[in-house]
Amino acid sequence: MAKPSVYRRADIQHRKDSLPEGGTYIKPMVTAKNSESTMAGGINFLNKVSVPFDIPCDELIFCYEGNFRLTCDGESYEIGPGDMMFVPKGNHIAYEADGECTIFYAAYPVNWKQLAGLTEVPGIDPDDM
């Protein structure tokens, strides 16, 4: 049986501290590479950015700090610290922040990138794909 894994923000804080305006950095923590689970999850730092994306998975988003906006079909959905939203797969969306923002995401299924045939996702380092 697999044991719990601990992920420390301090290990990736330097990526947030050096994130330029118009930038995004996504650190997948739970992926198909390290989990037999059915879900994935990680942290996303955003800084004055809009990132369009066709979402191939269901996603829960929890806003940790700052203000986060998701645009879907011309309608904006905004959350702040402590708020959460659900985003169903198949939508054309944009992840947006007018300032610095940190969100946590959980995605289903765990292998959403592989199922969608994605080899690149804005903000995810190639080694984390």
CATH class: Mainly Beta
* SSE pattern: HEEEEEEEH
Helix content: under 10%
* Total tally of structural domains: 1
- Helices, by number, come to 2
Instruction: Give the number of DSSP strands.
Output: 7
Beta-strand proportion: over 45%
Shape verdict: globular
CATH topology, by name, is Jelly Rolls
- Oligomeric organization of the protein chains: single chain
Structural features, described:
The chain is mostly beta strands and 129 residues long. It has a single domain (9-117), classed as Jelly Rolls (Sandwich). Helices cover 7% and strands 48% of the residues. It has helices spanning 13-17, 112-115, and strands at 23-30, 40-54, 58-65, 68-72, 75-79, 84-87, 92-108. Strands 1, 2, 3, 4, 5, 6 and 7 form a 7-stranded antiparallel β-sheet that branches. Strand 4 (68-72) and strand 5 (75-79) form a beta hairpin. 19% of the residues are buried. The model has no long low-confidence stretch (mean pLDDT 95).
Key words describing this protein structure:
Jelly Rolls; 7 strands; 129 residues; 7-stranded antiparallel β-sheet; mainly beta
Set down the secondary structure blueprint.
Layout: H1 13-17, E1 23-30, E2 40-54, E3 58-65, E4 68-72, E5 75-79, E6 84-87, E7 92-108, H2 112-115
Antiparallel strand pairs: 1-2, 2-7, 3-6, 3-7, 4-5, 4-7
